[in-house]
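Project outcomes to date are best conveyed with an example. Our students and postdoctoral researchers have been running inverse folding experiments weekly, and each run begins with a structure described purely in tokens. The record below, which covers 509 residues, was selected by the lab manager from last quarter's runs and is presented without edits.
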């Protein structure tokens, strides 16, 4: 009996000891963040230590460097900031580190030692902006930039050893996506089938068709309904409805404009001839390029409208003196306020500010009567010349030859750009991915695909049979192509929207 009592007492003290030790063990093995700041490129919404904050100026790219607001860094980590108004000298101190610098100056002092800045501090919209890499390195902060989501994360120490990022702190972190061994094709719309469930997901191959893949694997489709006219629909694979009409051609497209400063004229929606959709990844805005059906002298030649977040006129052009083909032009903006429009047939580059007429900016060195495709990535504008196979880079004043793509240019059937890369479809039905620096890889062999039965999101079609001879038509005159944020190809092919699955639909982190 005494022995049993002794065992019970010893068990009690052992349990008590374990209870006292456990918190200390947990504290050593599960480190938590003291301070954290989460930004997103070109987004004014930030999260400072878990609290939503609206920034006066969002993080941005300048000269290929990511700039972040200094005040927000100070607020997030409790750093001390001091500014001398007379000299524009700034000082930031944090946990024993002191950095001194001046706006626009290429030299700084870090703990009294001179350091040369690759990108000096600047003031944007009244906010001091500093290089992310410079400030994080010298304040010894962990930082990560996800190139896919554009998210910037700074922390005073690593979150947990068990949740370490895929790469070391201070390097870009990319989603690791599982590439499929065999490419498959999903039908995302129907064509001339008498089934009520398919009525809302039918597109008609009449007039202009244009598609633009956007973030979250969504896409916008411009098409013309025989009875309702042109409309823009949003495809969302995660929505029960799948397709939603977000815009039709109506009075929202009406506006007044000045004709050479002499008199006012009106552009009405009945004159709209839609030509192409353009998606700006940096600002998450969708634009539509349109022609005017009027051929009256001094009347509007073309216009550009933003479609999201709302329909509004961005710019317009009056000159009708030369031939043009607006769907072959490039349209881009690097800051969301100044826009550039490159017209390849007249070989002219126009610039514009929102709501104003575009103005002649410079001549274009691109090929005559070509198609131009543009991307803006890491603060730089690149333009691919389909006829010549050359990638041009924007200098701020003009396009200059950057690199020649190692592919026979006249074999390219279709060219597009999405999420930082160019995608070229050749006459052998092979898609090539090309980086802005001209590095090329075979991305998808579209002659070697298999088809999935039915139409995605329509259960009634799940058991529809396959006949074994299905293939992509890829007609050079009607095909449209874009690439979604997961890396899969979206094709408007033979009147049907199709998705070529290059990657699995889930990302492995």
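After processing, the design step wrote out the following sequence:
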């Amino acid at each position: 009996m005494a022995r049993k009592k002794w065992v019970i007492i010893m068990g009690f003290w052992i349990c008590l000891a374990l209870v006292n030790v456990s918190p200390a063990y947990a504290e050593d093995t599960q480190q938590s963040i003291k301070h954290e700041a989460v930004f997103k490129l070109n987004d004014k919404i930030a999260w400072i230590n878990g609290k939503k904050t609206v920034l006066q100026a969002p993080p941005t790219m300048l000269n290929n460097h990511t700039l972040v607001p200094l005040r927000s860094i100070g607020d997030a980590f409790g750093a001390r900031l001091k500014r001398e108004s007379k000299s524009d000298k700034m000082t930031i101190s944090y946990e024993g580190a002191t950095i001194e610098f001046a706006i626009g100056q290429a030299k700084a002092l870090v703990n009294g030692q001179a350091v040369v800045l690759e990108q000096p501090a600047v003031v944007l919209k009244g906010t001091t902006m500093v290089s992310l890499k410079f400030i994080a390195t010298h304040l010894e902060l962990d930082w990560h930039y996800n190139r896919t989501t554009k998210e910037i994360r700074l922390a005073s120490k690593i979150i947990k050893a068990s949740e370490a990022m895929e790469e070391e702190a201070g390097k870009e972190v990319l989603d690791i996506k599982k590439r499929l061994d065999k490419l498959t094709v999903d039908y995302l719309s129907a064509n001339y089938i008498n089934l009520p469930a398919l009525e809302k997901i039918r597109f008609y191959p009449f007039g202009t068709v244009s598609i633009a893949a956007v973030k979250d694997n969504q896409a916008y489709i411009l098409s013309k309904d025989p009875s309702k006219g042109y409309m823009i629909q949003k495809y969302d694979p995660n929505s029960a409805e799948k397709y939603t009409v977000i815009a039709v051609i109506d009075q929202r497209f009406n506006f007044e404009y000045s004709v050479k400063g002499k008199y006012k004229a009106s552009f009405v929606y009945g004159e709209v001839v839609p030509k192409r959709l353009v998606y700006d990844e940096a600002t998450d805005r969708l634009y539509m390029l349109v022609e005017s059906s009027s051929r009256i002298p001094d009347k509007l030649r073309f216009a550009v409208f933003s479609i999201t977040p709302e329909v509004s006129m961005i710019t317009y052009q009056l000159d009708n003196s030369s031939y043009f083909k607006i769907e072959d032009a490039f349209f881009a903006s690097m800051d969301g306020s100044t826009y550039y429009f490159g017209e390849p047939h007249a070989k002219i580059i126009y610039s514009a500010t929102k709501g104003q007429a575009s103005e002649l900016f410079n001549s274009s060195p691109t090929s005559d009567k070509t198609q131009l495709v543009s991307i803006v990535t890491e603060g730089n504008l690149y333009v691919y010349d389909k006829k010549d196979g050359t990638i041009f880079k924007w200098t701020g004043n003009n396009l200059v030859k950057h690199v020649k793509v190692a592919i026979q240019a006249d074999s390219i059937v279709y060219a597009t750009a999405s999420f930082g890369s160019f995608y070229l479809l050749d006459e052998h039905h092979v898609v090539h991915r090309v980086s802005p620096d001209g590095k090329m890889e075979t991305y998808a062999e579209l002659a070697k695909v298999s088809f999935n039965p039915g139409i995605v999101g329509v259960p009634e079609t799940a058991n529809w049979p396959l006949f074994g001879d299905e293939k992509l038509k890829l007609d050079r005159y009607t095909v449209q192509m874009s690439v979604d944020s997961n890396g899969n190809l979206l094709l408007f092919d033979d009147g049907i929207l199709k998705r070529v699955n290059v990657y699995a639909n889930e990302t492995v982190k």
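The CA atoms of residues 403 and 437 lie 6 Å apart. Residues 36-174 form a domain with the Copper Amine Oxidase; Chain A, domain 1 fold (CATH 3.30.457.10). The training component of this project remains on track.
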